[in-house]
């Protein structure tokens, strides 16, 4: 009994300290005073019966209230909602499920998978709940804006909190749940037996489902990663070696050939031709590695040349917008091993070439408080000498995901956006903006030669505009315009 008395004392202390916070959170989910009070009492009474560890009681109570609210997908029609300020009414009209998903994402910072797991819903159900939120009627331009978070916090502040003693008395007076009749336990055992049998019988069906785009995207990484570099898997085709097949893909598509087990990802597997890349030799992607995407468009023809297998799986991906893609927002692995000097050109012997006329380095910064916006500067172009070629070089060192666009003069310099896995980047409009979406955050280098792309003449200055969106932390961009010695054929060489 002593242990139970101690638990009761901890619960009393918790309720005394957190009554107002609990009703604030409950109102965010229920959008009405009376349902909020009932939700608090029900959750606290269940926690009291289960004798849970009170060290995590705040988080546990909040998740239980969110989970209980998520069972109701009916839009709220409380009569008090019409009396609320106009800015709160779009929230009040949502279903409790949609409000619970919205609060966990905006206030608690959960991603789509974490939200579904916390609410004990499927990914599809969670997505549908969030899609019902009228973001165009709410402040801010994105679902994760600071304005929307402030609105939700203000919405919770509308709750009226009973006293701690009243709340505690109601918790103690809450009746226990009714005892289940004996036949429900027999039914539960029957369900368990049937479930085990069904799992065994349907394993093959499940494996087949995992080979479909829906199955792979749901699993978020089986056979082929479901999402990679801003792309989503939309189709899988098994192609036999030999005759070429016409895929007929759109302007936002890419293809990947899956490796056989123990096969090198450097092995040439087939020949790909499309309006974007022309004729191109393609290799496969390692079973445990990231995917080597080959962007394509229009008439796309693939011929498999490797006869070591009867069929090769070919995955078709489609580019997704920022809002549709599960962009990483935490736990970043940042790569900052390169410097601007490392990007100098090399001669035919592979030796790095030093500039004959070094330019002045321009540095632009995004701070933790101000990472997004348009940042400008002027870059000096060195005066050209005989048999020299000016070369523009820039190196972006970000710390988080984000979208980055560089304009040097009036053009976007060449870049592969820091990817080691994207086979082809340049020549396509959507690559003028580098979208870093993964937890692995690379450095991004930009290059341009001579008067390429409308760069200014030597001895003048070039205006640099760097536009950043969705970045969560600081970044540094260093740019320089050097002039290098070249042969009459335009090849770099060490003077």
Describe the protein.
Helix 1 packs across helix 9 and helix 2 crosses helix 3. The chain folds into three domains: 2-173, no CATH class; 213-324, Sandwich (Jelly Rolls), CATH 2.60.120; 333-485, Sandwich (Jelly Rolls), CATH 2.60.120. The chain has helices spanning 2-30, 33-50, 57-69, 89-92, 96-106, 112-119, 123-131, 146-156, 164-173, 182-201, 203-210, 213-219; strands at residues 227-228, 231-239, 245-246, 249-257, 268-274, 278-283, 294-298, 301-304, 312-319, 333-334, 362-366, 373-380, 388-398, 402-408, 414-415, 433-436, 440-441, 444-449, 461-469, 475-485. It contains twelve helices and 20 strands. A hairpin with a 3-residue loop joins strand 5 and strand 6 (278-283). Residues 219-224 and 423-430 have low confidence and may be disordered. The strands form five sheets. It has a five-stranded antiparallel sheet with strand order 1-2-9-4-7, with helices on one face.
Total beta-strand segments: 20
User: What coarse outline follows from CA principal-axis ratios?
Assistant: globular
Fraction of helical residues: 25-40%
Total count of domains: 3
Number of DSSP helices? Answer: 12
* Computed structural class: alpha+beta
Instruction: Provide the low-confidence segments as ranges.
Output: 219-224, 423-430
Reading side by side through the largest sheet, how are the strands ordered?
1-2-9-4-7
Straight-line distance between termini: 88 Å
Largest sheet, in brief, is: 5 strands, antiparallel
Mean pLDDT: 79
Radius of gyration: 29 Å
- Give the percentage of residues in beta strands: 15-25%
């Amino acid at each position: 009994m002593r242990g139970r008395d101690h638990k009761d004392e901890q619960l009393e202390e918790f309720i005394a300290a957190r009554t107002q916070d609990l009703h604030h959170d409950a109102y965010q989910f229920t959008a009405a005073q009376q349902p909020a009070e009932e939700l608090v009492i029900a959750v606290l009474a269940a926690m009291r019966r289960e004798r849970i560890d009170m060290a995590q009681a705040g988080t546990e109570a909040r998740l239980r209230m969110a989970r209980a609210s998520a069972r109701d997908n009916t839009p709220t029609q409380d009569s008090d909602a019409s009396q609320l300020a106009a800015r709160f009414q779009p929230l009040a009209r949502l279903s409790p499920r949609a409000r619970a998903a919205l609060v966990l994402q905006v206030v608690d910072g959960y991603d789509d998978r974490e939200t579904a797991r916390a609410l004990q819903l499927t990914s599809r159900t969670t997505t549908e709940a969030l899609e019902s939120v009228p973001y165009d009627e709410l402040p801010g331009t994105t679902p994760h804006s600071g304005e929307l978070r402030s609105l939700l916090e203000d919405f919770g502040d509308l709750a009226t909190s009973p006293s701690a003693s009243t709340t505690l008395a109601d918790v103690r007076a809450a009746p226990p749940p009714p005892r289940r009749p004996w036949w429900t336990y027999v039914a539960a055992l029957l369900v368990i037996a049937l479930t085990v049998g069904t799992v065994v019988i349907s394993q093959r069906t499940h494996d087949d489902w995992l080979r479909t785009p829906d199955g792979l995207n749901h699993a978020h990484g089986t056979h082929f990663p479901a999402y990679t570099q801003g792309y989503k898997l939309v189709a899988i085709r098994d192609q036999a070696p030999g005759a070429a097949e016409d895929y007929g893909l759109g302007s936002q598509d890419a293809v990947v050939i899956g490796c056989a087990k123990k096969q090198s990802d450097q092995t040439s597997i087939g020949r790909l031709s499309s309006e974007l890349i022309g004729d191109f030799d393609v290799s496969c992607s390692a079973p445990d590695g990231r995917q080597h995407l080959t962007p394509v468009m229009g008439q796309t023809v693939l011929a498999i040349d490797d006869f070591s297998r009867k069929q090769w799986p070919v995955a078709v991906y489609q580019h997704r917008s920022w809002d549709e893609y599960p962009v990483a927002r935490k736990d970043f692995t940042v790569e900052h091993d390169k410097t601007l000097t490392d990007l100098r050109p090399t001669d035919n012997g592979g030796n790095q070439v030093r500039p004959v006329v070094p330019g002045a380095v321009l540095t632009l910064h995004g701070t933790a408080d101000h990472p997004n916006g348009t940042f400008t500067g002027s870059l000096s172009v060195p005066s050209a000498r005989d048999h020299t070629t000016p070369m523009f070089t820039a190196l972006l060192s970000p710390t988080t995901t984000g979208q980055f666009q560089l304009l040097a003069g009036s053009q976007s310099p060449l870049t592969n956006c820091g990817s080691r896995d994207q086979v082809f980047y340049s020549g396509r409009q959507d690559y003028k903006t580098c979208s870093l979406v993964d937890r692995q955050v690379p450095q991004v280098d930009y290059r341009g030669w001579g008067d390429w792309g409308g760069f200014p003449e030597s001895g003048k200055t070039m205006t640099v505009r760097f536009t950043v969106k969705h970045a969560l932390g600081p970044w540094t961009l260093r740019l320089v315009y050097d002039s290098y010695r070249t042969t009459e054929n335009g090849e770099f060489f060490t003077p």
